[in-house]
Amino acid sequence: MYAILFDIDGTLVSTGGAGQLAFAETFAAEFGVEELSGKVPFAGRSDRAIAGDLMRVHGVDPHEENWQRFRAGYLQRLPSALQRKTGRVLPGVIELLDQLAAAGHPLVGLLTGNIREGADHKLQHYGLADRFDFGGFGDVSHERSEIAAAALAEAQRLAREEYSPASRLEICELAGAMVIGDTIHDVSCARAIGAFAVAVPTGGATREELAAAQPDLLLDDLSDARPLLAEIERAMGG
Ligand SMILES: [Mg+2]
C-alpha cells in the first residue's frame, strides 16, 4: 500500500482568496483589526501559525483563548467567504483522483495547514469532500513536519487495521508515501517523513522557487500526472 497526501490550497483548489478574506473579517470582528498586515505569509503555513503571527503583528495576545476565539469566528465566516470569492478546482485534480481510485489506492489523504473543519468547508464547497478518508490537519501543530508525521501515522494505522486481510496472517505495511503540494514547505515536510515530494507551481510559489527546493518531481500542474502515477507503481514494485 502506498499513501498519497495532498495539500489543499494551491494544490487541489484555488479559493480565490476566500481563506484570507475569512481571516481578515474575523480579525476585524473579533480583535478590531481594520486591515491585516501584508507582512505575514499565508502560503504553505498552518492556520494556527498564520493566526499567531497576525496576532503578534497586530498587538493581540496569541494565547489559547484568543486562538479559540479566532478559530470559532473563522469557521463561522469561511463558508460565506467561499461563496463570495470565485475559486476553482485546479487542472487535472479530479482526473488524478479518479485514476487513483480506479487503480485501487485507498490511502489518498490530506496534508494541510488548514484546521480540520476549515478543510471540510473548502472541500465541500468544491465537491471534493468524499475523496479523502484521512489526513493531517493544522489542529495538530504549528509545524508542518509534525502535521505530516500525523498524516503518515494515520495512513500506517489504516493500512494495518482497515486494509490488511481479515485473516491477519499478512499485515499490510506502507510501501511508501508521496506528498503533493505547491510550496517549498510541502517539499520540506515530505523530506521530514521520508516521502516522495511532488511540487506544482499552481499556488504559492513559482516553478523556479520550487525547483530550488529540489522536489523529486516538479510538474506544471496535475493535468499530466503520468510521472506521478509511474512513481507510485515503481514504489509498489509494479
Ligand atoms: Mg498550499
Automatic annotation (TrEMBL):
Pfam families from the UniProt entry: HAD
GO molecular function: phosphoglycolate phosphatase activity
Family: Belongs to the HAD-like hydrolase superfamily. CbbY/CbbZ/Gph/YieH family.
Protein keywords: Hydrolase
Signal peptide: none
PANTHER family: PHOSPHOGLYCOLATE PHOSPHATASE
Catalyzed reactions: 2-phosphoglycolate + H2O = glycolate + phosphate
Pathway of action: Organic acid metabolism; glycolate biosynthesis; glycolate from 2-phosphoglycolate: step 1/1
Protein name: phosphoglycolate phosphatase
Biological process, per Gene Ontology: DNA repair
A cellular component annotation (GO) from this entry: cytosol
Enzyme nomenclature, EC number: 3.1.3.18
SUPFAM superfamilies: HAD-like
InterPro entries according to UniProt: HAD-like_hydrolase_sf, HAD-like_sf, HAD_sf, PGP-like_dom2
